[in-house]
Amino acid sequence: MSWLILILSGALEAVWAAALHRASRASGRRRLAPAAMFLVAVAASTGGLAVAMQSIPTGTAYAVWVGVGVVLTSAYAMAAKVERPTTARLLLLSGIAACVVGLKVVA
To answer: Reduced to 3 states, what is the DSSP secondary structure of residue 1?
Structure first.
């Protein structure tokens, strides 16, 4: 169960990063919704990390949390056409994803 919480918390890291991006680009009242989403997602993400770290070693949990977050955040940025999906970027992100899976296998 801790691993599932950790993966979901990493996914929420991507949610708060996307919300932060939207909040910084919006103007006026439209900033409230992304800002609120940012606050909720960052609290849930770090809370989930804290729960997962009760049974997963700190270094492993943090590396997986960040790895999941960076891969999903980059995928979102490519889907939103903020970043280009170059061959090098896709290869490197695949490497990060493989390392996250590897950490689960050896844990």
So the answer is: coil
Containing structural domain, residue 42: 2-106
- Residues shown for the chain: 107
Token code pair at residue 85: 């999906």
> Hey, what's the torsion of the CAs at 20, 22, 5, 102, to 10 degrees?
-90
Structure tokens belonging to residue 89 = 């970027």
- Residue pair 107/53 in contact (Cβ under 8 Å)? The answer is no
Among candidate residues 7, 19, 5, 26, the one with its CA nearest the CA of residue 69: 7
**Local confidence pLDDT in tens for the 107 residues of the chain:** 999 999 999 999 999 999 988 887 766 666 788 889 999 999 999 999 999 999 999 999 999 999 999 999 999 999 999 999 999 999 999 999 999 999 999 87
Would you list the DSSP string of 80-107?
TTSS---HHHHHHHHHHHHHHHHHHHH-
- Looking at the 3D structure of the chain, how many domains does it have? 1
